[in-house]
Amino acid sequence: MTARFSPAAGAASALRWFSRARRKYRTEWWIMIAGILVIALIVAMTVFPHVFTKYNPNDQDAGGQMTAPSRAHIMGTDNLSRDVWARVVYGAQTILGVAIAAALLSALIGIPLGLLSGFAGGLVDRILSLVMDSVYSFPGLILAIAFAAMLGPGVINITLAVAVVYIPTYFRLVRGQTLSIKEEVYVEAARAIGARRGTILGRYVFPNVIATVVVVLSLNIADAIMTEAALSYIGLGLPAGIPDWGMDLSMGKKFLPSGTWWMITFPGLMIMLLALGFTMLGEGLAEILNPRLLEK
Amino acid sequence: MTQAGKTILDVRNLSIAYPITIGVVRAVEGVSFTLGDGEALGLVGESGCGKSTLGLSILKLQRPPGRVTAGQILYRGTDILRMSDKALLSMRGQNISMIFQNPLTSLNPLFTIERHFLETMHFHDPGLPREKARAAVEKMLETLGIEKKRLKEYPHQLSGGMRQRIMIGLALIMNPDIIIADEPTTSLDVIVEAGFTDLLLGLRSLYKLSIILITHNLGLVAEIADRIAVMYAGRIVEIARAQEIFSRPMHPYTRGLIACVPNILADQKELVTMPGSPPDLVDPPAGCPFAPRCPKVMPICREKTPALFEHAPGHSAACWLYGKEG
Amino acid sequence: MRHLASYILTRILLAIPMVFIMLTIVFVVLRVMPGDPVNAMLGAHAPQRVIDQKKEELGLNKPIMVQYVEYLGKLVRLDLGDSMIFKQKVSQPIIEKLPATIELTLFGLLVSLGIGIPLGAAAARRRRSGGDFGIRLYANVVYCIPVFWMGLLLQLFFGVWLGWFPVSGRTSPRMEASVFSKTGFYIVDTLRIGNLAAFGDVMWHLVLPSITLGVVLSGIFVRLTRANMLDVLKSDYILAARARGIPERRVVYNHGLRNALIPIVTMLGLQFSLLLAGAILTESTFSWPGMGRLLLERIYLRDYPTIQGVIVVYTLVVSAMSLLVDLLYAAIDPRVKY
Lengths: 296, 326, 338
Description:
The complex is a heterotrimer of chains A (296), B (326) and C (338).
Chain A: H1 7-24, H2 26-47, H3 49-52, H4 84-120, H5 122-137, H6 140-151, H7 155-191, H8 194-234, H9 245-254, H10 261-289
Helix pairs in contact in A: 1-2, 2-4, 2-10, 4-5, 4-7, 4-8, 4-10, 5-7, 6-7, 7-8, 8-9, 8-10, 9-10
Chain B: E1 7-20, E2 23-36, E3 40-44, H1 51-58, E4 67-75, E5 78-79, H2 85-91, E6 96-99, H3 113-124, H4 130-144, H5 160-172, E7 178-182, H6 190-207, E8 210-215, H7 218-224, E9 227-232, E10 235-241, H8 242-247, H9 252-260, E11 309-312, E12 315-317
Parallel strand pairs in B: 3-8, 3-9, 6-7, 7-8
Antiparallel strand pairs in B: 1-2, 1-4, 4-5, 9-10, 10-12, 11-12
Helix pairs in contact in B: 3-4, 5-6
Chain C: H1 2-32, H2 37-42, H3 48-58, H4 64-76, H5 91-125, H6 130-143, H7 147-161, H8 173-176, H9 186-192, H10 196-233, H11 236-243, H12 248-286, H13 291-301, H14 304-332
């Protein structure tokens, strides 16, 4: 008995599900929407920076040196006379790009490993679990710092450093789900022919796991954003030419005693907003897709 | 409608409702009964009939969002529902106590047995010196047949039967007038249940207790109760002396309940059941709630709800079979 | 007692794989990654002979496996090796700076718990109300605040603008000498010799960094406490306690919160890791002389043995904390048997 999905039927049922979800989970729905809006705004900054600002983030002659916010420069200028708002707008590209790439990379490595470990069981599972658990309980940022330090500067390197931290997260998630589903599937598989297992896996296991993964991915990106910002704040990973919020913060730190609050406030605020956006998306989605999914 | 002695608890026209997303669940509807001093009243009915909700509401403990929508609960003349918080706290555990179904989860896993007792005593009688309190607790344990050394132990270290007895002890430590027992033996095995029954009856005469026994177990209620009230769909459908209920049940539901209990002596070929299921409490149909399942249903049953009426001395039923109410 | 000893031993044994794995990962990456430390030290134009000599000196020309085994051998003897940049044992600066980090992290934890638990309990009591929503919002927002940004803002506001608190270091320069540090834990040291002025100075310096670290991570505890409280408040023993006439406040806190906190204790180990990570950023922002700053310093200097040593020590600290947490859990929950 094979069911064929037609795209139209799939879309229709998805739409029905969405409107039902919106009615039932009012607050969570709006939280999710808020998150999406924030993300969309910042993505817009990434894709159409010229719409948001006319200044060049690296232009060291935009205005006066360290001038407070004014009509000409709504977020002021920094110590190299660069427009802060411009740096904020252009900085979005780096942080967003690295965070999303790192999260996807983590998932790409962690998920298959988790599936393997969960299904294979036995010694393979135990060894992999041990390694992953050790890395997981270790402070992630320290690991990222160590990797970033060793890999050296560069966008790709920093992405790799951040990605390493989250591999265990996906591993554990998928392994857990696989283990619990394995219990149910085995009974069926015992009765059926070997090939059937794959279908059951594809049609029942996967959709459930996908929902969880999407939520975790969203929250993970939020975390990756914070990690990337931390790495560039410390000074690891990005060459000077690329505008980056974390780096701007560390520069702002140097001039803090002179009270140039705008150099600190705005880049930091952006990091928070972007992370919040993904968090709200993830949290809202989690409640809607499966209440109590993320009790912990 | 009481046997003898004063009325100690008088429930008048009590209604309790739970607002939920799709409507309002009428868990208890217009319930009235009295409890005499020293009397044991059994409250029986199937799951969901509202008996637990009713029991909890006597101490105003019904789970939110449950609310009392009408009626009074008079304890020695004072309406519990209008008591101040302070008076209510004082009354709970001291004048009216309650014991519950699951003794393990009803005890705080982090507290020693002794601490459970001392805490209760401290809040009801702050002036009581520690030594006297301890002595009282030890005496209670003796009455319950539990060794003194158990006081320093934790709930998970005791057996199920012991824990149930501790529950009773906690309920009786302040010498209340009334004890409400909500499904007290449901989680116990038959032998422990028998021990419980003996204990309760013994304590009843020792402490001169009135008891409200909430259960679906007819056997238990037959042993303990003086009077029995039968509940269905949030209403009392019959109330009478225990012997009367079993020998001359009036309401068809009561009859059905009794018939359902297998008789080991009779030559039964099949188990008796009642067809159908309880009505929707959010949108109850008009008329008698039992009408859809009643083997003796009449046209009037589907139109008008019968009131609880004393059709024989000391025996009331809410059923049109016995004529219209006066 | 015998049970306890064997339990601790088992846990220590279990911690070893973790240390092993972390250190292997770091070791491998260090050796395998591009970027020759010797090159960095001597410069790209140094003659090959000098380079080779240096490598031999540092033992870097041996095969990786040999280097690895040698390192492990030294580790078992608690020797973390020598710094490649300075003439000192790796362990020396670590021993000096570890207490500073621990002190900061512990105070950060206290602040986290002090904010998180009461708020979480309050949110549980006011379920689905405005207050509940506000507290949950706080928890989510606060976690998204970069630790270093928080630190900078606090420095700006309370340090630069209001001038109420210091923005760097563990003590004021003039007080430094009077601490007479023996343990490295200034709080302990100043109290030991009864120097209340110095004690006050140390506490004063701890305020902003602890709040920075603590506030950002309080969100987690808010959520944990709230979730556990909601669960616990549905329990039968809560209803039974109410039925005995115990006042509501006491029921919620003595019966409810105490039970709700137990799962939180088990999670303390993991949260401590997050705190350690945050501490690095806090140390950087507040010029706090701890392990985090040491790590960053030596990374900049490419002092690989020290970097490795620091990572190993971090791993040990995390394991130790994890063990402590387990013991604490066994101590407070009478149902646990070891």
